[in-house]
Amino acid sequence: MRKLETGEFYGRHNQKLIFDAFTVTDTEYIHDKVDWHYHENPYFTYLLQGKLLESNKKEFYYLKPGDLLFHNWDDAHYNIKPKDFTRGFHIELNRNWFSKKGFESTDFKGSFAIQNPIFKMAMNTIYLEAKWNDCYTQLGIESTLVALFDLMHKPNTKIQKTPVWVNQLKELLFEEEIIYSLENLSHKLQIHPAHLSREFSKYFGTSLGNYIRLIKVNQAFNLILLNKLSMTEICYTCGFYDQSHFIANFKRIYHTTPSKLLKNRQRR
Fold first, then answer.
1. pTM, whole model, 2 decimals?
2. Cβ neighbours of residue 82 under 8 Å, at least 6 residues apart?
3. Mean pLDDT, range 248-253, rounded to an integer
4. Closest listed residue to residue 109, CA positions, set 152, 72, 156, 160
5. pLDDT range class, residue 7, cuts 50, 70, 90
6. 174 and 103 in one domain?
7. Which CATH number goes with the domain that contains 226?
8. CB burial readout 225-259, b (16+ within 10 A) else e
9. Model pLDDT for residues 155-165, shown as the tens digit of each residue
């Protein structure tokens, strides 16, 4: 079984940034199938375009744009790509990076999918940093990664048992036809609105309103990268009232406008 060295991914790299402790690649997948292999270092895969099936010894992941996986080192897997154009964004970390930042790579075992929109916002922020690629890019990416791993680690150390309604709500918030109101969500979860309001940030890391806003803005981010819909279509597909509301929320979170992201999406 082949081991991939630092910065090595199957495919054609549109961009590769190599820093002391981590490597960032924007990669077009060109192989219909990649046989069993593993990587020297832990890394994230964030699918930007197309579809990808990835399987390890325990799970299958059917990835679409916006899906995020974390892989710890030595976790063997294989990939199958449909005929579509498929593009992924990777962030690979040297194993000694974890201990230098107060973490251990063994705290994040195996491979797992990440749905939390706060984490996906972090990936989008890193994507933007990589496209800007200036003298502050390394600092911007690394500080975002430290915050991300700190957030990944906290649920395991501070919260011993997760209530059933938390996992139910995680799925509910991503349903397309859901009505985002406190009363409706509380009714579906069979818990009191006051309890939901009080406990939400403890398990989700932010307020209910901001969590939903991040879901919608992240959805828009991925649709912009796909470049198949107009800005007006993206605005209404993601549930914003109008374009000014959409642009204001997008700019507040990503410090750039949707049109600038579209313009720079292929920038090297």
1. 0.87
2. 50, 51
3. 94
4. 72
5. confident
6. no
7. 1.10.10.60
8. beeeeebeebbeebebeeeeebbebbeebbeeebe
9. 544 445 789 99
